[in-house]
Design goal:
The complex is a heterodimer. Chain A is built from 10 helices and no strands. Chain A is an all-alpha fold. In chain A, α3 packs across α5, α5 packs antiparallel against α8 and α8 packs across α10. Chain B is mostly helical. The longest helix of chain B is centred in the middle third of the chain and has 74 residues. Chain B is rod-shaped. The N and C termini of chain B lie far apart (about 140 Å). In chain B, about 10% of the residues are buried. Chains A and B meet through α3, α4, α7, α8 and α10 of A and α1 and α2 of B.
């Protein structure tokens, strides 16, 4: 496993494509924070976020032959996770849960846990697309063009959603 | 408050609960074994169908042989009957 962890990402990808399960497990370890993070930040529900993240990696296992590079893998994971989050929300089985205090308190960089909680609550109340775009913008540090490619929408539409989301948040927090 | 930096902090990447990759790999293995089970099914079905066909063929051949033997016996009896009738006619004529 150590050898796999130290191997270049493209090499791990090619090994996983050849049926190497250790390599596929290494891919999961490497990208789970992105996939689970998007689902968790969008849904605010650990159980559903885990279910979605598992489904995304199962789908990756089936589709891994079609992935041709590490950057393609990253784009694919963000795109499939985003679609599954939107689908989940549309199925209207999203269960709103109280935020786990431990999630907020566990961050050593957080200045004000209460403010973070309020901010999270306010983000959770945003419309789906605004919330997803916000997640891709700040979790993944993507620009509007990349978000547009991920979600299959024009860059200007992304900018518009982002602007509306930030305006709503600024109104409350500044 | 710097909203952008707060958003980066609040919307950071989050690892799933520990053992996540093992849980996914278990589902991968379950799926693989289920699919290989499904792949074996047609082989079993083909073997079963072949067995039925062989049984029918053997049964059919058996029936055919029985009928053939019956027909041969009837023919032999008919010939014997004709010969007896002919002999009777000869005896009666003399």
């Amino acid at each position: 496993m150590t050898a796999i962890a130290e191997a270049p990402a493209d090499d791990i990808l090619f090994r996983a494509q050849g049926g190497d399960h250790d390599a596929f497990a290494a891919i999961i370890e490497e990208y789970q924070g992105i996939v689970f993070g998007i689902a968790w930040n969008f849904l605010s529900d650990r159980a559903i976020a885990e279910e979605i993240a598992q489904d995304v990696f199962l789908q990756l296992f089936r589709s891994i032959a079609a992935i041709h590079s590490e950057s393609h893998l990253l784009h694919w994971l963000r795109q499939v996770t985003s679609r599954r989050c939107i689908d989940q929300s549309r199925r209207n089985i999203l269960r709103r849960v109280e935020l786990d205090e431990a999630d907020i308190a566990s961050s050593p960089r957080l200045q004000d846990p209460l403010l973070a909680r309020r901010l999270r609550d306010r983000i959770a109340a945003l419309p789906d697309l605004q919330r997803l775009i916000l997640t891709l913008r700040y979790q993944e540090d993507l620009g509007p063009a990349d978000i547009g490619r991920t979600l299959g929408m024009p860059e200007n539409t992304v900018k518009s959603y982002l602007h509306r989301a930030l305006t709503a948040l600024r109104k409350e927090f500044q | 408050m710097n909203l952008e930096s707060e958003l980066k902090e609040v919307l950071r990447r989050v690892d799933p609960p520990s053992g996540f990759s093992k849980r996914v790999m278990k589902r991968v293995e379950d799926r693989r074994s289920r699919l290989s089970g499904q792949a074996r099914l047609p082989v079993l079905q083909r073997a079963l169908a072949a067995s039925v066909l062989i049984a029918l063929a053997i049964g059919g051949w058996g029936v055919h042989e029985t009928l053939r033997a019956r027909n041969e016996l009837l023919t032999a009896m008919r010939i014997a009957s004709q010969k007896v009738a002919h002999a009777q006619q000869e005896v009666t004529r003399r």
